[in-house]
Design goal:
The protein is of the alpha/beta class and 275 residues long. The protein has 2 domains: 208 residues, Rossmann fold, CATH 3.40.50; 58 residues, S-adenosyl-L-methionine-dependent methyltransferases, CATH 2.20.130. Helices cover 23% and strands 35% of the residues. The chain is built from 6 helices and 11 strands. Strands 3-2-1-4-5-11-10 form a 7-stranded mixed beta sheet, sandwiched between helices. It has a 4-stranded antiparallel beta sheet with strand order 6-7-8-9, with no helix packed on it. The longest helix is centred in the N-terminal third of the chain and has 15 residues. The chain starts with 20 loop residues before the first helix and ends with a strand.
Length: 275
């Protein structure tokens, strides 16, 4: 989940501030509503093996096991588990995996393990997988994207479903700009955290990137770091996916909406079927 994936465990947001991650980065998201939408997508598209059977509303979620690729501190996986799914979450950050286990590890049919979604294969045979919050945008190289899809073919059952939430490049493609976001003070776990963000958009070798410069003021001191994200066209995702044998089933602007505006949508959710 970063420009240099091996450095992710060292990033402040995924380490010292990991326990506050959802509050800091997901405060404008309704996780319960997002997971309701994800649940609908999974059950609308899931097929069991070679049998051309689409699940119907009311079919047992307990028959569909999921892998969360980039699970963070486990909140999304826990909501889906509460719905009835068996969920296995992996993340490259040891601190986030430790927190997920502490918070939700005692839930039946919910587990977490340290792993890189480009290479993790300790568990296989999942009916569906998902990666949300733009985890794929931390991968800058086409070879890394190809590795994700090649690896996913081993993680998923035949005809399994893969759902990806990715930041889309088109609304401001090719433009460079800098934006200073207003400072915000967030309350999390009894602590006040003041956060500032400066956003820079740039173009390198025909690819669009966003750099977010974070500054945090906490009770323990002043922290700062930078995250770099690659923004993708739909084709930049579907090309390596199809090369690995995946079939595109649906593209939408977000989990909760149908339809996709290629010129205006700032995000995209892709639904793919494994070979």
């Amino acid at each position: 989940m970063n420009q240099h994936p091996q450095t992710i465990p060292d990033l402040i947001l995924f380490n010292q501030l990991a326990e506050h991650y959802v509050r800091l980065e997901g405060r404008l998201r309704n996780i319960a509503a997002d997971m309701e939408s994800l649940d609908q997508l999974i059950r609308a598209h899931y097929k069991t093996g070679a049998v051309n059977h689409t699940t119907r509303p009311g079919d047992s979620r307990s028959d569909i096991d999921l892998i969360d690729l980039g699970c963070g501190t486990g909140e999304q996986a826990a909501v889906l588990n509460h719905m009835g799914y068996a969920v296995h979450g992996i993340d490259i950050s040891p601190r986030m995996i430790a927190l997920a286990g502490q918070r939700f590890g005692r839930h039946p049919r919910l587990s977490f393990q340290l792993g890189d979604f480009r290479s993790y294969q300790q568990a296989r045979g999942f009916a569906a997988g998902y990666s949300l919050f733009g985890c794929l945008n931390y991968l800058h190289q086409d070879t890394d994207l190809a590795a994700v899809f090649q690896n996913a073919t081993a993680l998923l059952k035949r005809s399994g479903i893969l759902i990806l939430e990715v930041w889309h490049r088109r609304p401001y493609s090719g433009l460079g700009y800098t934006y200073q976001a207003p400072a915000v003070v967030l309350e999390s776990s009894g602590e006040s955290i003041r956060r500032r963000r400066r956003v820079e958009r740039s173009v390198r070798n025909g690819r669009d990137f966003i750099q977010i410069h974070y500054e945090y003021e906490t009770r323990t001191g002043h922290l700062r770091e930078m995250h770099t994200f690659r923004l993708f066209d739909c084709e930049e995702i579907t090309r390596p996916a199809q090369a690995a044998g995946f079939t595109l089933l649906d593209v939408r602007g977000s989990l909760g909406e149908s339809g996709f505006d290629r010129k205006r949508s700032g995000g995209m959710v892709l639904v793919l079927r494994a070979p």
